[in-house]
Write a structure and sequence with these properties.
Blueprint: H1 10-32, E1 35-50, E2 53-61, E3 65-67, H2 86-93, E4 97-106, E5 115-118, H3 120-125, E6 131-136, E7 144-147
Antiparallel strand pairs: 1-2, 1-4, 1-6, 2-3, 4-5, 6-7
Length: 148
């Protein structure tokens, strides 16, 4: 004679289901939450694509400011507080596609020094020699979402 199937308590089944859903939601929320890092800026760089070629338009370090495109040497002078204002960005877009703003940070950790993509607004806010706290996307670890 076959042995009867034992039924588990419904409270146990629902408890296991709630724990599994809770773990899933917790990991989902942790994935969405950005990482907060601290470091000092080492360089700022503007890049773009011109005639299908990737080009560095300008690069700035704590002691140098180099504009690599001779056509923009008079335009990209930092005189109004913002390195790249909206008007300057529009002038760059006349010849370049896919303009990106990049910064390099010294995070006081061993290993490679990371480089990040940022928005124009964040690019203009960052200063050399000052510690800065910033949020990095977990989905795109090379992008700074905001500075604090």
């Amino acid at each position: 004679m076959p042995e009867p199937v034992k039924r588990t308590n419904p409270a146990v089944r629902y408890g296991i289901l709630i724990v599994v859903i809770g773990v899933f939601l917790w990991s989902y929320i942790q994935e969405k939450k950005p990482q907060v890092k601290t470091g000092e800026m080492e360089y700022r760089m503007v890049t773009g694509t011109k005639a299908g070629n990737f080009q560095v338009i300008l690069i700035e370090t704590s002691d140098r400011y180099v504009i690599l495109d001779a056509d923009y040497r008079e335009i990209l002078v930092a005189e109004d507080g913002e390195l790249i204002s909206r008007a300057k960005q529009l002038r760059l877009l006349e010849q370049y596609k896919d303009i990106e703003y990049r910064v390099g940070a010294n995070e006081k950790t061993p290993g490679l020094k990371p480089g990040y993509r940022v928005t124009r607004e964040i690019f203009n806010q960052l200063r050399f020699g000052e510690p800065v706290k910033y949020e990095v996307s977990k989905k795109q670890p090379d992008r700074i979402l905001s500075i604090k």
